[in-house]
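Progress against Task 2.4 (sequence-to-structure conversion) is shown through the following example record, which the project officer requested during the mid-term review.
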Amino acid sequence: MKATITFLVSLFVSVATFAEVPTAEKNALIKFQKSTHGDQWKSKWDLTKPVSSWQGVSVVNDKVVAIDLSDNNLSGTIPAQISDLKNLQSLVLFKNSIEGSLPKTIGEMKSLKVLNVSFNKLSGSIPVELTKASALTEISLFMNNLSGTIPNEIGSLSNLQVLSLYNNNLTGEIPNSTYELKSLKVLQLNSNQLTGNLSNSVANLVSLESLSLFDNKMRGQVPFDLEKLKNLNEMNISYNNFNGVVSSKLAKKDVMNMTMVDQYGVATTLKVDMEKDKAVAEEE
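Structure tokens generated for the chain above:
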């Protein structure tokens, strides 16, 4: 009897140790591996071994919860079947050579919190479906070849803390809904081709710590409401077409002291109005 119990305990431990993730999740990973040319990765997956042993894959309670394959020589494209990873919370594919567009199906990943496919060769637009992934806290797609506009529905991602889209070819204006992101801490949109004004509603971004709009084509008056952002400690909005005057307080916050480009392409510093400092102080 004792031997039987010992055997059953050993069997249970063995099964628990080699427990496998759901078939749909494993198939999604295999599809991803093939679609991104897994035979050329630096660290390859041994498909004959348990998923939990695969490099960069985190498994908790027999569910795939995270993938981190940064700088692993991935190429090819991200397959639509990535959305079959229903429990995935973090997808980090930083610094590879992934091409094509972001799959619209990512919007179906309701557990996804972190999406980082920066420093790749992605093209096409940012799919509006992405804004349906309501748990997202970070979207990092910088240093790609993305074009088109930022989805108007971006403001529906109420948990978003990081929106980093710099060094792409994005056009159009910053969607008004962006200013509704109360949890946003980092907004990096520099080195694109964005136009339009910076809305006074920027004051609604009460959690904002870092703002970078450097090297775009934005215009109009720099809103003094920026001074209301008490957590803002890093800002660079220079090399746009902003005009008018700024307070000395705002000028000092900007990394390049509000250096803009005029209609002739000449760099010029915005005029500092000391009276504006007094007005803002009285308003506070």
